[in-house]
Design a protein that fits this description.
The structure is a single chain. This protein starts with a helix and ends with a helix. Helix 1 runs antiparallel to helix 2. The protein is mainly α. It has one domain.
Amino acid sequence: MHTLIAAAIGLVSGLTSGLFGVGGGIVMVPAMLFLLSPPIRDVKQAVGTSLLVIIPTALVSAGKHWTQGNVDWRTALALAPMAVAGGYLGAWLTTRIPADDLKRLFGAFLMLVSLKLLLGR
C-alpha cells in the first residue's frame, strides 16, 4: 500500500510541477506527512525526500518547457547561483529549527502564498 500511495503522490506532484512549477514542497511534503507517516517521520525528512525526487521531475519538466519556448535563459542564469546558495542555507537552517516550528512556518508560508495568488494582482 505504501508504494501505491507514494506513486500517487509522485504522479500528482509531477503533474503540478509541469503545470505550475511546483510539486515538491507544495504537494509532496504535505502529502507525505499526512499519508506516509510512518515511514516519513517529520517535516525535515519529507522536505529532504521531496528535494531528491524533484530533481528528475524538474529536469524533465524544464526540458519540455524549453522545447516549447517557455524558458528565459537570461533570468534562469541570474536566478540560479543565489537559488543554490539559498538552498544550502535553508538546508543548514533545518539543523537549527525544531521540526514542529518548521512545520508551522511552512504552513504559514503556504497560506501567505495562497492568499496572494487568490487575492493579489
